[in-house]
Amino acid sequence: MNRETFSHLRAKLGKTQKALSELLGVSLKAVQSYEQGWRSIPIHVERQLYFLVVNQRSEGQSKRKDCWAVKKCDKKKECPAWEFQAGHLCWFLSGTRCDCTADKNWKEKMDICRTCEVLTSML
């Protein structure tokens, strides 16, 4: 995640830097540093920010689509997203079967998920 995306998502949440730092469990200085590009954004912070945006309540929010429907997945019954009926949170779960992410570490998985239509359609 780059600093522009981070700032955009904070604005989408309607949070001040201080309020977002409290939600993310990081210091105010950390949030300021992410937005200025002085520090790289850790994967766990990126995932948590996506989680907050995806689950934000808003009027007229489009219906979330499950990953197995979007991707026409033939491995869904082997996948934790299917098992826990969390198809809109596949990017948040370990061990998903989509796009060969099962054996990836979080950094590699998020590199794939950042461009996936399941996540991007909700941001």
UniProtKB/TrEMBL annotation:
<dbReference type="InterPro" id="IPR010982">
    <property type="entry name" value="Lambda_DNA-bd_dom_sf"/>
</dbReference>
<dbReference type="Pfam" id="PF01381">
    <property type="entry name" value="HTH_3"/>
</dbReference>
<feature type="domain" description="HTH cro/C1-type">
    <location>
        <begin position="9"/>
        <end position="37"/>
    </location>
</feature>
<dbReference type="InterPro" id="IPR001387">
    <property type="entry name" value="Cro/C1-type_HTH"/>
</dbReference>
<dbReference type="GO" id="GO:0003677">
    <property type="term" value="F:DNA binding"/>
</dbReference>
<protein>
    <submittedName>
        <fullName>Transcriptional regulator, XRE family</fullName>
    </submittedName>
</protein>
<dbReference type="InterPro" id="IPR054687">
    <property type="entry name" value="Two-CW_dom"/>
</dbReference>
